[in-house]
Amino acid sequence: MSLFYDARIRAFLYQTIAIGAVVFVAWMMFSTASANLAKQDIATGFGFLARQAGFVITETAIAYEPTDTFGRAILVGIANTVKVSALAVFFGTILGVLVGIGRLSHNPVLSRLMLAYVEALRNVPLLLYLLLWYSLIISVFPPVKQAIEMLPGVFLSNSGLVMPAMRWASGLEALVIALVVGTVAAVVVTRVLTRRRIATGKEMPVATIAAFAILLPLTLTLLSADISVSLDVPELGRFRLTGGYHVRPEFVALLIGLTLSASANVAEIVRAGIQAVSKGQWEAATALGLPRSRTLKLVILPQALRIIVPPLTNTYLTVFKNSSLAIAIGYPDLVMVSNTIMNQTGQAIEAIAIFMAVYLGLSILISLVMNWYNARVALRER
Amino acid sequence: MKKRILQLCATAAGIAVGLTAFTASAATTLETVKARGKLICGVSMSTPGFATADAKGHMQGFDVDVCRAVASAVFGDPEKVDFVLTNINTRFQALQSGEIDMLSRQTTHTFSREVSLGLDFGPTVFYDGQGLMVPKSLGVNSAKELTDAAICTLPGTTTAQNLSDFFRSIGGKFELVVFESPDENRNAFFSGRCEAISSDRSDLASIRAVANNPDDYVVLPETISKEPLAPSVRQNDSNWRDIVSWSVWMLMAAEERGITQANVDEMAKSQDPEIQRMLGVSEELGKMLNLDNKWGYNIVKGVGNYGEVFERNLGTKTALGLTRGPNTRWSEGGLLYAPPFR
Amino acid sequence: MAQFEGFVADPTLMAPAARPPARDRTWLSAYFGTPGNAAITILCLGTIFGLAKLAIGWLFVDAIFSGTPAECKASSGACWPFLSAKLRYIFFGFYPFDEQWRPLTAMLLFLGACGVSMMPRTWGRALAAVWIVVILPTLYILMAGGIFGLTPVPTTQWGGLPLSFMLSFVGLACALPLGIALALARASSLPAIRVLGVGFIEIVRGVPLISILFMATVMLPLFMPDGITIDKLLRAQVAIILFAAAYIAEIVRGGLQAVPKGQIEAGHSLGLHYWQIMRKIVLPQALKKVIPPLVGLFIGFFQDTTLVTIVGLLDFLDTVRTAMRDPQWQGIAVLEGYVFAAVVYFFFSALMGAYSRFLEQYFRTTHD
Asked: Of A92, A97, A312, A265, which Cα lies nearest the Cα of C6?
């Protein structure tokens, strides 16, 4: 009896029971599943990944043909998911910051309008918005035969936006390398100059130098390398526009939906972050004679950023996970591709396990990157 | 607080148990169905002609009538069936897990499905093939002209694969637009997002039937695949499989023998030994299936014969306006051939 | 899914609202004080005016209020006969037509009971008892039938708004205790239990709800021993509960962290053991702090239940969607259904949002 009251023994007991229960349930599930699969003659294992996929994916962020493998098809799904979430995060953040600042404007019309925007987006399910945007796009814009030619070569219809594309015969690699080199150089130069300015107080034309650092390698490459490029202008074929670069309505509807929902959340986070900066900071800046816009930029936003970053991480993760709603409107993201594979091979467990693992892995990656950024902007106590 | 939570949980658990159906693992499907007093049949969602609900939620359609025929065979009442709307993702799992007793959902009988999904298929109830439908205004007469067109289709079926094979064989390309739900798929086609829509020909007829003006659309002549649609049941329950198969054959045989919903009482007096066996007047075929001996009579009384089921749901007088095509008696050059009842 | 993370992570819940200093000005100068300000005002008014004109034109001026699908097709405005024709289907799905008074009664009873329970004055053991002994069984009997001469209605025929309410409400009610348990596990001093808690919470939060729903509807049946089948609705419900529990656990963890350590130490010095400390000291304080964000979370669940349409359950959004694709209205009611659904979702979400703010205020001003 006294043994039971020994804290260490009790701790050991509890933990053993907990782990035992989990292991037991997992084992039960595993054994019944394998028995069921064996009894019903359902294939198992990941061997199907190397088999030929045989289905078409229309929107591909990386090269893909129906003769490629199932594994490649999954990669295409991942690339599509990442593409749409990254763009939605980018646009959603910009829009959200603007709306969040607008919410705090002294102008009552602007702040009320922004409040209405945020409330309208946050109180209606995203899935409903996605279906609504998609319906709007395909019912408001004309069919492809009567596509609106907005600019020469740029067509808008309910099959999306088609515009001229650049087809690189050669020289693309050289240009990309030059751009990367230039950007790295610009970042380094900016940092060195900023540090010098802090140390010596000397103002330098940082922006000009940085622009120069980017442009110089590009210009040199343009002049020296063998570059040939042709413009692929879309033409109206028998049924639709052929050639050029297609932005499909499924992608647009998903991007709009994700961007708007992200922007509403970002706006709330930014507003709350700014409001959380103490009033004294505003007063101090005003006392120094800084105008409102510069106060916001130089005093308030850097401090608000510290409060903003953790919830912002959550919003970004949400956008990433919400991109799985693509399946409702036919954008071939990871879930949709896995779903097709699941139906073709009948291997539900493997297909679901793959896409859950990918989501989990990428979620952790995003968290890590944002934590690293958070550590950078966090208050450094001296 | 805690107590309240515990109580809440207890209630929830109570409700959960109420919703969970425990069935003894030894029971055969027939025993389970009989004990339940109802057949549970998986059908598709909103496919006019095959499975739709009227304004009052009463299900009707070709696939639905196949379920009703089995319900008639088991219970003598075509209404003793509950329908579970399955979508393309969940249809086989619903059957494998025992959520439904049979699947009657425009499902193509293929080798890999029968061999690797733990299913047994019954006889083909509808001989179909994949086709393409376009608006008349497009001025297209053959699927081969559809190079570079956008084609709407449903995911997860063999449809996309067949299309891809077809266009590869003619050396063309096409843009595939895939939708999760049949409703969205239809809507996208009607809105002009795609030039063509591809599915089984029967399904195309069903899609055409719901267009605002069905005459604006035309199904192209090419059939790019074989799609024998058949009901399916779980593997390893041969009694149940026999019941489903012979219920379907009963529909076909009744048509061969000229037995209809209207004249079945009359026909029961027939001196023809096979008709007598079918309608349970002589011998004991029903008993051998563990059913009531009047099972055949009940099927025809409940839903009619194959021809009646077809004409009622899909035939030329309905919105779908399908002709019998290959789905007619073998004696008239069709593919329907019920094995003899003896 | 998880649109609610914005609600949860809203720093206003922790930080006092501090408005930047406002100078005294007349109302006119607030709108037109500077040229820039005037431009903003005019731009905003222009936007509002444009949107209002578009909306009023579509909703009222060009709209058809009664008539046939053909008349609707000819008009460019909204088609309201669509709603009146399909309203019962939109609300109740395939629930047997003659029995639809049952889900209606159930829904009204549920909303009424919720309305009463939203008043903090009514909180207590009695209320919980009433919910468990009277309301929930009544709701279940009304929906499922089988006794008191009510025809049994299988869950496969449940649909529409009652289903959405059920999925979100039962989801939260059952996820709450599980979430609290997970939060305690995560804060536990026993490493194995902590690891299990963290593992569950992080895995569930790392994947989209749709994948958990897929798992529950497609994969779970394969894990069940022979002969046991679980209702599809229940499977989706379990998925929502597990998903919700992980998010609740994170909120409750915030509440637990906000309870000063001294409280626990005081409990120890009184000789209380772990469960007594948690039940009588820590949880009451922690839970009170997290009630407002939990209501915010609930708004998210209510909206997230729309995802069950992807796994083939007929929730409210799904009935709206299928009603719009009804052959009679195909291509005619393109937006009406979505707009109507948006208004319904907005109404309930905004109501709960307002309630969440009220609770925040209430807890800030009362010290009981």
From this structure: A265
